[in-house]
Amino acid sequence: MADSEARTGLTAIVVGWMLAGIAAGTAIGATAHLVGAVRAVGAVVGSGGIVGALLGAAAWAWDRRRAGRRAAVLDGHGRWARPSAAALLGVPLAIGVASLLVLVVIGTVHTGSPLAGLAFLVVALGLLTLAPSVWVTGRLRAAALAAQAGREAEAARTWKTLARSRWAPRSAADQAALNLGSLALARQDGASARAWYGRVRGGRAAAFAASGLALLDVLDGRFAAAEHRLARTSRAGRAVQGEVDAVRLLLVWRRDGLAEALGLGDRLLGPESGVLFLAILAAIRREAGDPEGAEALGGPALAEALRESTVARALPELRALLPDDPG
Questions:
Q1: Residue 138 lies in a domain
Q2: CA 252/CA 243 separation, integer angstroms
Q3: Residue 226: which domain range?
Q4: pTM: predicted TM-score of the whole model, two decimal places
Q5: Which member of 107, 139, 141, 184 has the greatest number of CB atoms within 10 A?
Q6: Is the dihedral of CA 261, 262, 265, 266 positive or negative?
Q7: pLDDT tens sequence across 61-96
Q8: Contacts of 269 (CB under 8 A, 6+ apart)
């Protein structure tokens, strides 16, 4: 899944930069042709597309290398992801619009008719409609960086702006609401967490939010409500199974006791088990007097992964596993 999403992102970036290169090549070639510097405008256009594609691939590779330094946040599909730099699409968008505006002037002057220039102007205005999405990407990345640096209040302000925006894409609003819900959960503000999770509407993101609401039910001791919500959330399939398994394991531990939770955890454990599930099972094994079994689930690597989990901070059962916990 991660490799497929990475290839999709690379394709989008390369195509965007290639189109920007073609637009820039067309503007430069047309200008040079008007002043008699070149005759083969097509060669300049083609070169612009090739250079743009290469620059796009290089920019994507540079961004992915730096992505590991960024905080992982919930995206609009309920996945943990590290947001890309807005410049990956912002730069080619600016180049494309500027080139088209140059072609507006050239088309009008060269043909003596405003119709050619008008056609380029319409395309430029169409590209400008993408600007809000690029701005949203930048704001989401800024919020992630603020959260990573411990400036949670700053991150929360940005997420709230996007979650309440009327023009932000649905996926961006869902991403902001998911992260606000997780942040409120970490602060043990159940009412706010429920309110933010309740705003999520889209597909897998809504299923992830439902698992968050089920976790809140468990923390409040509303075990029947949590069981009912988990049963409905499970229908979303494998997309949220890791979160569902983690909440169900915590539910059984709190409701039915250590032995039942230990048996359930061993049955559910698999190669796709998520960080939260592994952490809960590790805590169960430690409580059951099996520190070696707990260590086998990840040890220091698991503890380090928990550092980025805002949800883990809300669970007293996991405090001994958190890196900064003296216990």
A1: no
A2: 14
A3: 215-327
A4: 0.67
A5: 184
A6: negative
A7: 877 776 655 555 554 444 555 556 666 777 888 888
A8: 277, 281
